[in-house]
Amino acid sequence: MMSMMQSVFSDTAWSVWEPLIEEVRPKGKTPSKNLRRTISAIFWRHQNGAKWRALPSEFGPWWIAAQLFIRWSKLGVWQRLFEKVKDRDQDLGMVFLDGTTIRAHHKAAGAAKKGGTENAERIVRLSAAHVEDLAPRSA
Predict the structure, then answer these.
(1) What pTM does this model have?
(2) Closest CA to 17 of 88, 71, 74
(3) Which of 7, 45, 90, 93 is deepest in the core (most CB within 10 A)?
(4) How does pLDDT run across 5-34, given as a tens digit for each residue?
């Protein structure tokens, strides 16, 4: 049976994403042993449009993923990760040109929220949709 984390990142996909994440992440705050679980939680949440509190318990406490997402948004980590991924997969950079892939929330018509996570939300949602694209394909 496939675990929830493996449904987000296969072992092959994680082997590609982990070094990219390690290059851009701030050191010290998130232990490496929990990194896959936490990143999987963040990507799962953005793939499914769920609220943070709706994260399955397999991903650990919801607030850890939420805190990491917000902290990394403010530090520009998601933008740096996107730049790394885009350099590896030129097609992923083109995703931003197609507005039909972005579902707008009903509150999207208002002014920007405090905290500056809007751009990071979009980057993570689009990156999550293309997790397997970076993994090498077996023949």
Answers:
(1) 0.70
(2) 88
(3) 45
(4) 677 888 888 888 889 899 998 877 666 678
In eight-state DSSP terms, residue 3 is -
Angle in degrees, CA 17, 18, 19, rounded to 5: 95
| Amino acid identity for residue 138 in this structure | S
Q: How confident is the model at residue 97 (pLDDT cuts 50, 70, 90)?
A: very low
Q: How far apart are CA 63 and CA 19, in angstroms?
A: 24
DSSP letters for 48-86: HT--GGGS-GGG--HHHHHHHHHHHHHHTHHHHHHHHHH
The residue with tokens 């948004």 is 73
Backbone angles phi, psi at 34, to 5 degrees: -100, 0
Q: Provide the 8-state DSSP code for 97.
A: G
| 3-class SS shares of the chain: helix, strand, coil, % to 5 | 70, 0, 30
| Nearest CA among 100, 96, 80 for reference residue 24 | 80
pLDDT tens digits, one per residue of 29-62: 666 678 899 999 999 998 888 999 999 999 999 9
The length of the chain is 139
